[in-house]
């Protein structure tokens, strides 16, 4: 059943088929259906995901929710490549108020997923970046495959790791959170599991069988008449469905660099991190420094401060801070003066891959440039995410 099909059990959706929904047994299945755009999230998709999760939260015939990405024939899969950055660029230049709506509603959706009372299973097959991490990191079970590519690459476009990224990266072991946030390094399945950003490795080809196993009525203790089931029963059932397909992931390629990451990225400032990497003649340090020199210096400094603050924040407070930051990304320097607008231009619009960062060098970033990002533009009682707990 698609999102546009008539059904008394499903609400009306607004994304024009970019989100598909069906109920298989007692499992609500959501398929992101924008495959030609790597299932990047539009505002309509954010609204449909929210509508479905709220609907199934109250539906006693649904015991768990599963989210996956539509595939592309003959091409590598993508769970979700993030938000629709071309929309961000167009909306920022046009003064479209839907840009504000997008981030408010997306961050509220991220919070809903983290706090969802029923098991929520994310099949993170292929590309899972930015907004894709936002709709998967709060899942009860985060499944990756041999094709998974996970990242928070926002500093590459003059943004910061949002969608709760400050919060979940800050909880990675050691100082790997700072490393991932500043560099946008892409992780394999093994790396993601070792860093606590995924739970199970299943071959990509086995995912349809996993979904079918979860949906089998025979897998429901006592049959459909017993719905709703306890959280423990559903967790046992999910584990049983995963068991025949799950594989050992190994330690991942980053394991060999963990001590170097902690050494460099534990330092108090971006300039100190740069200097430390520059003094290290290892190939890892050289490659990492080269990566940082392609990112926005100002937004890396904002990002470092975000991750450090988020270590001592609740998820709700982190999302409120991120909502402040993303508004400032587009409003402190409006239009083409925005680092984010310039970063998206270089990557996705003109595709020249030569953003003109301002300031251009890490040494040019001052505390006076960064401080305004952390001043909320709203009093607490009217903050757009004030109701998050």
TrEMBL record:
SUPFAM superfamilies reported in the protein's UniProt record: ClpP/crotonase
Limits of the Enoyl-CoA hydratase/isomerase domain: 27-374
Domain of life according to the entry: Bacteria
Cited CDD domains: crotonase-like (cd06558)
Keywords, alphabetical: Hydrolase
Residue ranges that the Swiss-Prot or TrEMBL entry lists as coiled coil: none
Short name of any one Pfam family annotated for the protein: ECH_2
InterPro entries in the record: ClpP/crotonase-like_dom_sf (IPR029045), ECH_dom (IPR045004), HIBYL-CoA-H (IPR032259)
Keyword Lipid biosynthesis (UniProt): no
Gene3D superfamilies in UniProt: 2-enoyl-CoA Hydratase, Chain A, domain 1
PANTHER family: 3-HYDROXYISOBUTYRYL-COA HYDROLASE, 3-HYDROXYISOBUTYRYL-COA HYDROLASE-RELATED
Protein name: Enoyl-CoA hydratase/isomerase family protein
